[in-house]
User: Which sequence fits this backbone?
């Protein structure tokens, strides 16, 4: 099976991983996205702000491969603070719909003790069919 690396043009290059891998059958695997910008800077140190940026990052990778939010079939969320997530469900829902619309793919959420980037409060990976 052949594949193509998906790297948004204006992003700092990923080191040691790929932001996206598109297979010849149109399956796009989006590596875990955190709440930093294309310049790998955190503009928010808040869960909801980082969630919005992570979802926007996923959509940027999907768009680079030729897709939209509706092409996303799966999201896996890794969060470091379950209580913060649970306490802010209304805000989470509002921001999710703002970024993703009313598209709700299969989702899994896992609570983890830490992420590789110390400032990251969550990481989200995605699968899409382009």
Assistant:
């Amino acid at each position: 099976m052949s594949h193509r690396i998906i790297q948004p043009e204006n992003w700092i290059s990923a080191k040691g991983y790929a932001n996206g891998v598109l297979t010849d059958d149109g399956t796009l695997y989006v590596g875990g996205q955190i709440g930093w910008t294309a310049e790998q800077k955190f503009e928010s140190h808040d869960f909801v702000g980082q969630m919005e940026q992570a979802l926007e990052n996923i959509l940027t990778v999907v768009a680079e491969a030729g897709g939209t939010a509706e092409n996303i079939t799966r999201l896996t969320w890794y969060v470091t603070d379950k209580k913060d997530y649970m306490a802010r469900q209304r805000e989470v829902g509002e921001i999710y719909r703002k970024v993703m619309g009313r598209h709700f793919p299969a989702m899994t959420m896992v609570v983890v003790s830490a992420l590789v980037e110390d400032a990251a409060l969550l990481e989200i990976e995605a699968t899409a069919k382009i």
Remarks:
- Residues 3-129 form a domain with the 60s Ribosomal Protein L30; Chain: A; fold (CATH 3.30.1330.40).
- The two ends are 16 Å apart (CA to CA).
- The mean pLDDT is 96.
- The chain is about 30% helix and 30% strand.
